[in-house]
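I need you to check the entry underneath: sequence plus fold tokens. Let me know what the token row says about the fold.

>
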Amino acid sequence: MKITAMTAFHVELPLEHAYWLSGGRLTFEVLDATVVKVETDDGVTGWGEGTPWGHTYVAAHGPGIRAGIETMARFVLGLDPRNVLEVERAMDLALPGHLYAKAPIDMACWDIIGQVAGRPIADVMGGGSRTPAPIASSVGAKTVEETRAVMDRYRSRGYVVHSVKVGGDVDRDIERIRDVEAHRPRGERILYDVNRAWTRQQAIRVMKATEHLGVMFEQPGETLDDIAAVRQLHAAPVSVDESLVTLQDAVRIARDGLAEVFGIKLNRAGGLTRAARMRDIALAHGIDMYVMATGGTVLADAEALHLAATIPDRHRLGVWACQDMITVDIANGRGPRNIDGHLHLPEGPGLGVHPDESALGEPVAVHRLP
């Protein structure tokens, strides 16, 4: 089997509500998605998706995915997609770094592997838990009243896990955290996501002021150095996501005790192949995990769910899915969908969901073997 063609589609994904994070310094209304079709000479077709969370959030750029695919195409065409390590090395040779551009190709290869095996990706990867995965909501940085309203909207859809965005104003952050905790129903899990918005002194002040509440924070500093600098000055458990990009990051976080939770974002990590290594580092060090798409359609949500299903249930805190936040559906209702705040692993082979190609528009690029 060999890859004979790669086709890239550009799809705009309008958000249901404009989204604020990092204390309002970042606002998003439309996501820039790239959907990739990988064809083989055996007639098996795999699909992948790369959708960064806007252009200004982290070093991942929607148009950059399509440019990266164009750069890597001639190195990948002709390879056997089942040999994911060979494909990974070919992409790294063609384009050092730019992991976000490699993720959709890796995803499509795993889709092909699962289809050839006749099993879901999670099963092929050696996991395959059928325990429904709780979906984490994403509550943008707002006032106390707006936060209550947004969380109630998610609760009405069955959500019991929430990611509440904070950052930018110490007093406001403390007030919102206290209010959310005061109204938290029993059994809910809440992660306060700073998205790197705090300085070191702000982090210490908020985390100390809310220490008695036993709450958990995600990415409470710009860098791992910032998180390390305040680590001994507070007692709150920490999750790291934006600074978890490479395997070296995962090793440092685990070795130095910088976090109790990994927030693994597949597009940021470069796809399932690389993300699985981070999973194993976490499991070896007793670190729990959230698994997340950075944004996107049900394709990206399904990919995150497959990796989550390879994590023992007691170490898997939840998945983050974007499907309830966007206003378009490229798969006509197929694939894993929110059922009472949870996603259920697809039983079909490979990814378990493919797009309706007519919903993608005309391709922006087609790369074929000569």
Q: What stands out?
A: The mean pLDDT is 94. The radius of gyration is 20 Å.
